[in-house]
Structures are given as C-alpha cells and as structure tokens.
Specification:
Glutathione S-transferase Yfyf (Class Pi), Chain A, domain 2, 2 domains, 10 helices, 5 strands
Length: 252
C-alpha cells in the first residue's frame, strides 16, 4: 500500500511508514538516499508502507523530525509514534530492531566510511552531470520546486551546470571501489551482501533514472585481465534487490 501526503500520517505501534520522494511515475523510487532505506527495509523483510512526498511538501510532512533545519530531507521512517530521519540513523535503527539479516558488515565503522566516501567523493564527482537531468522524472510540483531552489542556490540555470561535464568524471573515484571488489569481492564487504552494496546500488539507480546509458558506461569502466567488467559482475549479483517488492509482504 502506498499513498501521497502533505501532512504526517498516523501509524500503529507495529507499522513502519516510509516517507519517500515522489516521482513523476507513481510508485517509483528515484532518490539515492531513499533507495538506501527502501533496499534495507526490503532486504530485512520488514513490512512497511510508503507515503510519497513531493519536494515542496517535505517541510510540512516531516519538518518536525529535523528541528532547526530550513530544508529538511528524506528519507524518514515512522515506527508507531517514533520518527527517524536520515538514512544512516534509519539503518542503525533497523539493525537494532530487525537484526536479521545483518547489514552493517563487516563493521559499523567500515560501512560508515564507505557511505562517507560515496557522499563526499563519488557522488560529487558527477553531480554536475546528474543534477540537470533530475527534473525530467519528478512530479510537476516537485519539478518546479527543484529547478527554482537549485538554481537559486547555485546561481545559474541547471542546463549551464552540466556544460563540460561527463559521466567519465566518475571513473577515478570509482577506482578504489573496483579494486576492492576485484581483490576482496564478490560483494563490497566481502562474502556477504552488506549496506555498502545497497549504498552503491541506490546511487546507480539514481544515475539510471537520470541517464540509462551513463550507468552502462560506469558498469564497464574497470575490467579484469580476462576482460570481465568488475563493476558489472558485482551489479549482476545485486541488481535484483532494486526491484520494489509488494508492501503487503514482510515479517513485522
């Protein structure tokens, strides 16, 4: 079950409500941060329902979860009367309350480092290429809000941001990730799927929504001596996780 909202919802004590960013195509996830939470909920088999929130409604719906923040963000989950904001806080909450299967592997610190690397190095390397492509898949109100606020913040038109930038700027910062997979895979944390895999998978879903051909380029950027594409090989093992599952299923 899913719905749209301009105000926070009520939830029973045994229910998780997941506040996700609305897309122009109903019921489809696109935000890399929201993907992380959706993937974690699905991987753990947690029963939840989604409330889709358009950009201009975020503050009225979940602003109270981030006091003092002028522009609150998603994802947010609500478990009974408790609200948890920020994807990192959410996954830690899920690990505590729904410990199986575990996601913070091989350690909480290593996963947090990888998330920081993705948010501080990987994503910024191609943000000028991706951001101008975001409005095309937003809902109408979200599109207007996104363009207006981003252009005001950046001081230029979105189409100007992408000039001179290509997806190949992702290659150098992706190098350590490919090297780690090649030497210690098949997953980013070793032998088991971890939250690190969900972080990168969510980012690639965002890229795919913005420019499908760009993701295909990324998947083939690094190859083993035998010609096998390292990132593609990993992606083929985890991409099934990015299929949104029926929200009536789960073990909550």
């Amino acid at each position: 079950m899913s719905s749209s909202a301009s105000t926070a919802q009520s939830a029973s004590d045994d229910e998780i409500i997941f506040y996700d960013l609305k897309c122009g195509t109903p019921g489809e996830c696109w935000s890399p941060h929201c993907w992380k939470t959706r993937l974690a909920l699905q991987f753990k088999g947690v029963k939840f329902r989604t409330v889709w929130v358009s950009y201009p409604d975020i503050k009225s719906v979940v602003g109270h979860t981030q006091p003092g923040v002028d522009a609150p963000t998603l994802p947010v989950i609500q478990h009974g009367a408790l609200f948890i904001a920020d994807s990192w806080s959410i996954v830690q909450y899920l690990e505590e309350h729904f410990p199986a299967p575990p996601l913070l592997l091989p350690s909480r610190q290593s996963v947090h480092f990888f998330q920081s690397y993705c948010e501080g190095v990987l994503a910024p390397s191609v943000r000028p290429f991706i951001i101008p492509r975001v409005p095309k898949f937003l809902d109408e109100r979200g599109r207007e809000y996104f363009i207006r606020t981003r252009e005001a913040t950046l001081g230029m038109k979105l189409e100007e941001i992408a000039k001179g930038h290509t997806i190949y700027e992702f290659r150098t910062p992706l190098g350590p990730v490919a090297k780690n997979l090649n030497e210690y895979g098949p997953y980013l944390g070793g032998e088991q799927i971890s939250y690190m895999d969900l972080i990168l998978l969510g980012m690639l879903q965002w890229f795919d929504r913005a420019e499908h051909e760009a993701v295909q380029t990324i998947l083939g950027m690094y190859k083993k001596p035998d010609g096998t594409a390292v990132i593609q090989e990993w992606y083929d093992k985890v991409k099934y996780l990015a299929v949104s599952q029926p929200e009536s299923e789960g073990n909550l």
